Amino acid sequence: MRERFVLILTTAPSLKEARFLTQGLLKEKHIACANILGFVESHFVWKGKVCSEKEHLIFMKTNEKNFERVRRFILKNHSYEVPEVIALPIQEGDSKYLRWIHEMVE
């Protein structure tokens, strides 16, 4: 069976928190790398109210079996009551890059 890789997304209210989450996940070898994007404008309904916030979006690359570890780490260390933690499958990728992800998280 071929190893499956995922792109995990979350948001953070500050660059400091985004870096904290990213560094912790890297140190634990739960992710191979992450990209922190500058402010994105998020719109959502929270507790019956329409909200708009500026957040940092984080893209994290890892294998599928690490999703649960990443999810637990984010839930434990995130300032939000219900943080976004979703995974998108990586359908295709350069074989050298995917091998590198594999080596970084094993």
Walkthrough of the structure:
The chain is α+β, with helices and mostly antiparallel strands and 106 residues long. Helices cover 33% and strands 40% of the residues. The chain has helices spanning 15-27, 67-77, 95-105, and strands at 5-12, 33-46, 49-63, 86-90. Strands 2-3-1-4 form a 4-stranded antiparallel sheet. β2 (33-46) and β3 (49-63) form a beta hairpin. The longest helix has 13 residues, at 15-27.
Task: Tell me the layout of helices and strands.
Layout: E1 5-12, H1 15-27, E2 33-46, E3 49-63, H2 67-77, E4 86-90, H3 95-105
Antiparallel strand pairs: 1-3, 1-4, 2-3
Order of helices and strands: EHEEHEH
Task: Trace the largest sheet across and list its strands.
Answer: 2-3-1-4
Largest sheet: 4 strands, antiparallel
Indicate how many domains the architecture comprises: 1
* Low-confidence residue ranges: none
CATH topology: Alpha-Beta Plaits
Q: In angstroms, what separates the terminal alpha carbons?
A: 17 Å
What is the strand content? Answer: 35-45%
Task: Provide mean pLDDT, rounded.
Answer: 96
Q: If you compute it from the alpha carbons, what radius of gyration comes out, rounded to the nearest whole angstrom?
A: 14 Å
What's the short story on this structure?
With 106 residues, the protein is α+β, with helices and mostly antiparallel strands. The protein is built from three helices and four strands.
